[in-house]
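Researcher: Here's a chain I'd like modeled. Treat it as a single chain, no partners, no ligands.
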Amino acid sequence: MTFYQEQHFEGERPLFGEQHATIVRTTFGKGESPLKESTDIALEGVVFGWKYPLWYSQNIQVNHTIFEEMARSGIWYTNDIDIKNSEIQAPKLLRRCHNITLSHVHFSDAAETLWHCQSIELKNVNATGDYFGMDSQDIMIDHLNLIGNYAFDGAKNIEVHHSNFVTKDAFWNCENVTIYDSVLNGEYLAWNTKNLTLINCTIISDQGLCYIDNLTIKDCHLLDTYLSFEYSSHIDADIKGAISSIKNPISGRIKADSIGQIILDETKIDPSKINIDATKGLEGK
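Model: Modeled as a single isolated chain. Structure tokens:
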């Protein structure tokens, strides 16, 4: 085991292919790929200042580490990486990686981060940036606060707990998504998705929940959610409070306390295949 402490490295590939090393309170300045092709590395209090620090790496432990803005595209093609208590300013950080754990991590610029990855666990993560989580799969999330549009486009097998999303066009083109006890705020939620379940969530989404196949909603509030459920099928929805408007759902059942407007165009859908139950009737009636 090699031990590096309070050192500074610059230039291209200074520790290329490093194996079985602990690196403590060390900075990597200007110079690409400082730890490319590394294996069994523990990082504690490290600062990465330049591009591509961890490519094609295996079994990496990261704690109290900073990825500065120019450490962009920092972790690609890497397997078995655990990042905790760290600050990440760099975009495009994780791509085509397997077995990722992120705990108490702050992404100040999460644009195009976590793409095409598998087997991911996020816990107590804060992120700001567009296109977070695209085409990734097998994702467990607990306490994610995400601000940024087009989150998790094309992702599969996602379970979410106690999270907040401020993101337009979130969860598009997904498969097998279950979200518990969370807030989702953004236009056009979850279009073209299969197997979406929402339990005890608050949803604010203009034209949300459309073009979905197999949609389950239990004990959720839909606030200011207009023209919802258009061309969605196999719906099973129990909604607390009011729905502003529903437009042309294909099949299933929707139950709410009250509904502002129901649009059923017989030239577009067969109204006999959808059961809509407003306990208190249409608003204002």
